[in-house]
Amino acid sequence: MDGRRVVVPCGWSLVAAVLFALAVAVAPLAAQQERTFRPLRSLGGGSELTASVSLGDVNGDGALDVVVANGRHWPSQNRVYLNDGRAGFTLARRLGEEEAGSYAAPLADFDGDGDLDVAVGNDRTRNLLFVNDGTGRFVAGATFGTPSSTRSLTLADLDGDGHTDVLVVNRGRQNFVFRGDGSGGVRCRDAVRGGGRLHDRRRRRGPRR
């Protein structure tokens, strides 16, 4: 209950009083369930096979823009939609020139210049970093991983060095962590083994000589 008092008319039986109290309590919940969200406006084309979207201010105007990962199994064009500040996304730009079967396009600052870059996770082709020039225009940067079945990317500083790392989740294949170098690239990859442990390839090499 939400703390409201229910006043039951005098002379009612206990059963009637309980049913009346339940009806009063449930009525607001039923009204809430009938409420639905309606589309404010469309975003992109209806024929696009969108796998995921990411939000972030890519051009520094204080409004959240949208980066769309399109394609899934079929090559398609990823896009950046710039927000006019009123949830209007009339300006659309291509993210890269080549079409790919993309599943994920999360945002983070990979090169340490203060703006948001994009990591794109692809199916059956290499994953790719796109570097932002600060105005929401992106140029293709470093690739990471071999062609695989990437389904999602998670970005975080996993080793505490202040740089953004990438956890790559692949369908039916080995998952990997790629360590960011802070300048828009990745240094190496670590396999994610069973039990949640990272297998660091650098540890297998032994001391440097």
Q: What is the number of helices?
A: 1
Give the distance, in angstroms, between the N- and C-terminal Cα atoms: 70 Å
What is the helix content? 10-25%
What is the CA-based Rg, rounded?
25 Å
The SSE string, one letter per element, is HEEEEEEEEEEEEEE
How would you characterize the largest beta sheet?
5 strands, antiparallel
Q: List the uncertain runs.
A: 195-209
Strand content: 25-35%
Number of strands: 14
Shape: globular
Would you give an account of this structure?
The strands form 3 sheets. Strands 5, 6, 7, 8 and 9 form a 5-stranded antiparallel sheet that branches. Strands 10-11-12-13-14 form a 5-stranded antiparallel sheet, with no helix packed on it. Mean pLDDT is 82; it is low at 195-209. The radius of gyration is 25 Å and the shape is globular. It has 1 helix and 14 strands; from the N terminus they run αββββββββββββββ. It has 209 residues and is mainly β. A hairpin with a 4-residue loop joins strand 11 and strand 12.
Key phrases:
10% helix; five-stranded antiparallel beta sheet; 1 helix; mainly beta; 209 residues
Task: Provide a short characterization of the protein structure.
With 209 residues, the protein is mainly β.
Question: What order do the helices and strands come in, and which of them pair?
Answer:
Blueprint lengths: L13 H21 L15 E7 L8 E6 L8 E4 L8 E4 L7 E3 L2 E2 L8 E6 L4 E6 L5 E7 L5 E7 L8 E6 L4 E6 L5 E7 L5 E2 L10
Antiparallel strand pairs: 1-2, 2-3, 3-4, 5-7, 6-7, 7-8, 8-9, 10-11, 11-12, 12-13, 13-14
